[in-house]
Amino acid sequence: MRRMILLVLLGLLAVAVPLRAADQITYTSQPDEIYVFLNNVAFARDTITLPAGVTAAVALPASVFDNTLLLREDGQRISSYRLLRQNAAVLVEWTTGTGDGAREITLEYLLSGLSWTPRYDMTLNGDPAETADFYFFAELTNSALK
After folding, report:
1. Do the beta carbons of residue 111 and residue 142 sit within 8 Å?
2. What digits encode the pLDDT tens for the residues 124-146?
3. Can you name the residues that pair with 92 across neighbouring β-strands?
């Protein structure tokens, strides 16, 4: 009788554990848009779609400025989230709203490690030079999103 109860309990645990795991989603932020400023600072925007009623955990780059995170769900700002620093990443956790359908999540944040430096190239044409061609380039440095 005890063995039967033990087997039933083990069977219930085996079924219950995967159901809990399905209620959590982990995602690594891969920004859709990045705007690089001088002074080694960039603005990033990441938009994802998540189901309703799940615990979401999004890993942000370690170089994120914690107090710049803006988290929105279906256009409404989410202010109740946890921000945890773990080794080489920052983890933001929250529970998506209840109801039917998917939720559009937008994460916006500033981070360091992305910068650009202007580079110029000028070519003189002719001997003696009658015209000049001027080219502008930008050299990007990325130590944040490797």
Report:
1. no
2. 998 888 899 999 998 888 888 76
3. 58, 83
- Name the maximum alpha-carbon separation found in the chain: 104
Question: In angstroms, rounded to a whole number, what is the distance separating the alpha carbons of residues 138 and 66?
Answer: 28
Which residue do the tokens 């938009």 mark? 47
> Rounded distance, CA 10 to CA 100, Å?
32
Measured CA to CA, the distance from residue 57 to residue 92 in angstroms comes to: 6
The burial of 83, by beta-carbon neighbours within 10 Å (0-12 exposed, 13-18 middle, 19 or more buried), is given as middle
Residue 110 half-sphere exposure toward CB, CA atoms < 13 A: 9
Instruction: Determine the Cα–Cα distance for residues 59 and 73; give it in Å rounded to an integer.
Output: 17
Strand partners of residue 115 = 141
In whole numbers, what is the pLDDT of the chain averaged over residues?
85
**pLDDT for 101:** 86
Q: What is the pLDDT of residues 32-56, one digit of tens each?
A: 999 998 788 999 999 999 999 999 9
